[in-house]
Structures are given as structure tokens and as C-alpha cells.
Specification:
alpha+beta, 6-stranded mixed beta sheet, 2 helices, 6 strands, 12% helix, globular
Length: 124
């Protein structure tokens, strides 16, 4: 998804699944803790229904509407964490797995020599 879009401009927009079927209206946008970029949209799926989280990364904003590359049924079956609260890393991981998206492991830090080992004397 375009990362230069102001997330406030997504709220209230219509969302459609991969087949062009309307899912609902974007209720909230969640930002990545590290980058501040829009990462998740909470979509109100119906009048008496709940909000479903969808990832914004594989989605596209086309002519003012959000097009999500998943089936409506998969979106409606997404884990329900409620809206208005921060998503924990564990909840995000559950959502990524639900949508079949690969989440890479955090990068390994290079090995570093942080000083002498205990018990070793420094030779001068």
C-alpha cells in the first residue's frame, strides 16, 4: 500500500474484497509501532457486526476505496481483538498467520566482542 497516505484519510472509506464485494467501512487505522506507517485497518463489517482487522500492506487504495486481496469470508473470520486498543505483537502475529502472510524473524544481530571474558587477564 502507498505509505505516504495519511491514515486519517482512510477512516470512513469503503473496503472491498478480492472479488469486488463490499466488506464494510474503515473504522480505525493502526500504525506500526516502529515506523509509524499505517499497518492495519479495522473494517466495520456490518450494522450489528464487529470490526475485522485487515493488513494494509498487500491492500491497495483505488479511486478512494480500499481493495483487500482476501476473500470476504476470511476477513470476517479474522481473530477479534476489539478496537480502540493497541494490538500486541502476539495479536499481530495471529493476524498475519490468519491471512497466510509470512512474517520474517527479527534480523540477527552481528556477533560482537563486548570485552574480555570473566577470568581472563588482560595482557599488556
Amino acid at each position: 500500500m502507498q505509505t505516504d497516505i495519511d491514515p486519517r484519510h482512510l477512516i470512513g472509506r469503503k473496503a472491498y474484497d478480492r472479488n469486488g464485494t463490499r466488506i464494510g467501512t474503515i473504522d480505525e487505522v493502526y500504525l506500526d509501532d516502529a515506523t509509524g506507517a499505517p499497518e492495519w485497518a479495522a473494517i466495520r463489517t456490518g450494522l450489528f457486526s464487529r470490526d475485522a482487522f485487515v493488513p494494509l500492506e498487500p491492500s491497495e487504495l483505488i479511486d478512494g476505496t480500499l481493495h483487500v486481496p482476501f476473500e470476504r469470508s476470511l476477513i470476517k473470520d479474522a481473530p477479534d481483538f476489539g478496537v480502540g486498543r493497541h494490538l500486541s505483537p502476539e495479536q499481530e502475529l495471529q493476524l498475519y498467520h490468519h491471512y497466510g502472510l509470512d512474517v520474517g524473524a527479527p534480523p540477527l544481530l552481528p556477533d560482537r566482542d563486548f570485552g574480555k571474558l570473566a577470568g581472563q587477564e588482560e595482557h599488556t
